[in-house]
Amino acid sequence: MAATVKQHVQLALSLPPRLRTFLARYPPASILPAGADPETHKTLYQEESPNPFMPTKHPITGKWHNPKYSLRRQAELVKLAQENGVEELLPFTRKLNEEKLRKRVELGLRVKGTGVGEKVKGHKHERTLVAKMEKRREAMLAMPDLIREWKKVGKRNWTKFPK
């Protein structure tokens, strides 16, 4: 048991100072001592705001307060946690990888024309290209018959040839 405690202490000391400070201020319930109640083992920071990544509503005035950590600082903490393999110890935030993946799956790419059965508008020459090339291909296939007709009619009557 003493060896695992020493290992946990060594792991905590190996974390970057910013991440170590954050986890000291907002320790997750999973690293509390065995048998400890998460409600009674709250730090002063946690009593002030349980999740520092979410906005909080003042109980008396009803006004919303910004999160303790801005989105930029949240992203930096999440990156640090990912690099050190302790991302699951952080409280919920939009910047967590699993949350970003969930949102990407839910909303898709959100680029017009990439969905099933959708087409991108494009330029006019791009939209009409397929029809124009099909028309050109049909004209090329009909060309030998036209040449034969022209040879029958002759050069003099060529201008009278019906279109």
Strand content: under 5%
What is the chain-wise order of helices and strands? HHHEEHHHH
Total helical segments: 7
Radius of gyration: 35 Å
Unreliable runs: none
Strand order of the largest sheet: 1-2
Report the oligomer: single chain
Shape: rod-shaped
The count of DSSP E runs of length 2 or more, i.e. the number of strands, is 2
- How much helix is in the residues? 40-55%
End-to-end CA span: 97 Å
Describe the biggest sheet? 2 strands, antiparallel
Structural category is mainly alpha
Average predicted local confidence, pLDDT = 87
Q: Can you walk through the features of this model?
A:
This protein is mainly α. The chain is 50% helix and 2% strand. The chain has helices at 2-14, 17-25, 44-48, 71-84, 97-107, 124-127, 129-153; strands at 56-57, 64-65. The chain has a two-stranded antiparallel ribbon. A hairpin with a 6-residue loop joins strand 1 (56-57) and strand 2. The radius of gyration is 35 Å and the shape is rod-shaped. The mean pLDDT is 87.
Give a topology summary.
Blueprint: H1 2-14, H2 17-25, H3 44-48, E1 56-57, E2 64-65, H4 71-84, H5 97-107, H6 124-127, H7 129-153
InterPro entries: Ribosomal_mL59, Ribosomal_mL59_dom
Protein name: Large ribosomal subunit protein mL59 domain-containing protein
Domain Large ribosomal subunit protein mL59: 17-152
